Amino acid sequence: MGRVDLKREGEREWVTENRLAIRNSPFLRQENYVLIRLTICDLSIEVLLCRRPNMPDLALDQKTKYNEGCNALRHYSLCVMNMRTVTIAQGLVLLSGTAYLINQKAFQYSFSLAIFGLLFTGVLYGLQKSYWEHFEKILEAVVILEISSDENSTAEGPWSAYKENRKTLFDRPLWGLWVRHGPFMLLLMALLGIAVYDAAKLL
Length: 203
Fold this sequence. Notes:
By secondary structure, the chain is of the alpha+beta class. The protein has 2 domains: about 5-55, no CATH class; about 60-200, no CATH class. About 65% of the residues lie in helices and about 15% in strands. The protein has helices spanning about 60-105, 105-150, 160-170, 175-180, 180-200, and strands at about 5-10, 10-15, 20, 35-40, 45-50. A 3-stranded antiparallel sheet has the order 1-2-3, with no helix packed on it. Strands 4-5 form a two-stranded antiparallel ribbon. Strand 4 and strand 5 form a beta hairpin. It is elongated, with a radius of gyration of 31 Å.
């Protein structure tokens, strides 16, 4: 790399490297860089710092927004799946623990564990519900982008097709109850039954 000089031309400053003129580059205009001069004793140092260019064409276009939306949908879908996995795993642990304690006639400890399980399951369900709500909001935005970017096409976009099929399934009450909320509902009923059984034994 050659020496970088600073020249004045009219009311603007241009940067040249060797004899190569790069005045037409938007990244090297005066508003996009800062020249810092540092003088220590007789030693003078000049540093050219580039700013982030403020260009309208760097704004997010439709394709970029669509890609970001797809990534967000995958993220929240994975979050929901992880919450279901955690719920099933902690359900197996809690049910195994309460079964062992009941077998040992330790009903007070089994009751406490069941109550804790109910509260913890409620927390996990709240997290999953939050992820679902975020997913649905982003899904609506992505579908709008699909429709607006392909107005003249009769083909249905992938997320539009997914949303339509999802709505069809969610309109079935039993499907929504046992598939969407199944792990939480089953665990809540099991823990509630164990808590009632322990309470009856303690009375």
